[in-house]
Design goal:
Elements: E1 4-8, E2 17-23, H1 27-38, E3 47-54, H2 60-65, E4 70-74, H3 81-91, E5 96-99, H4 108-114, H5 126-135, H6 140-157, H7 172-182, H8 213-229, H9 237-248, H10 256-264, H11 271-276
Parallel strand pairs: 2-3, 2-5, 3-4
Antiparallel strand pairs: 1-4
Helix pairs in contact: 6-7, 9-10
Length: 287
Amino acid sequence: MPELDIAPVMAPSHPILSVIVPVYRGGQQLTDVLAAITASDLPRECWELVVVDDASPDDSAERAAAFADTVIRLTGRPRGPAYARNRGFEIARGDVVVFIDADVCIRSDVLRRFALHYQTGAPMPEELLQRLVAARNFNKGFATVEYIACAEVDLDLHSLPPPNAGDQALDASAFEAHSLARIAMPQEIVMRHRLPHFAHIFSGGGYAAGYYSYMWSEVLDADAFAAFQETGDIFDRATAKRLRDCIYAAGGRQDPAEAYKSFRGRLPTADALLRKRGFAAGKAAVA
């Protein structure tokens, strides 16, 4: 059994409800999800939030600590969401337990179905809902730039030719400064991970020149969700069936790009993600 690192952060004394969120490599999406959960109008003293980090190699546990009452950090190899949920259930203190995945964020029509006042049953006021939606993009420009800077430096670093015996050691600080100057990095923002502690890109071939993939995953997520939005019904059955048949059930039997094109009719673009982050004209997507 992997070791547990249980860190109570706040913890209501007698919660009625326990909300358990298992996570692996949550990144910025985890921050968005937890912000949406903690924005609930159910009085905070009535419920607890437990996040179980399934041995993530990123900063998921640190992100969770900003919101959760208790953070459980599993060590060793990842065991999967079901295992993580069980570890959270073991310490849950509420009379009712609710499991929420780490990739589920607020959506206005979903909130109208479920965000009801615990005493009166009244739906969340529209004005409050829009304030929550608007708050999701707070500091999004800063977060995007600090991430892209790391991804660009990672790619530049792994584009260097292999060193030869006798070559002068790489000046990491000078290389980093030169790479950031190439992308006109604003002086007011720094890299999320400076090279001396950028463990992702030096932990083996799996992450070398691959830090960009976190945001590329968000591009795919936003573009695919836009397919549902374009129908006018985020629960559209035909679109869901096409996603299942073309992506989830396809497995590895075809090139991933071809699988995506069979679902979407084209390759993904960053347009939906730009809208979601508030960088492009049009109403931001709420997913």
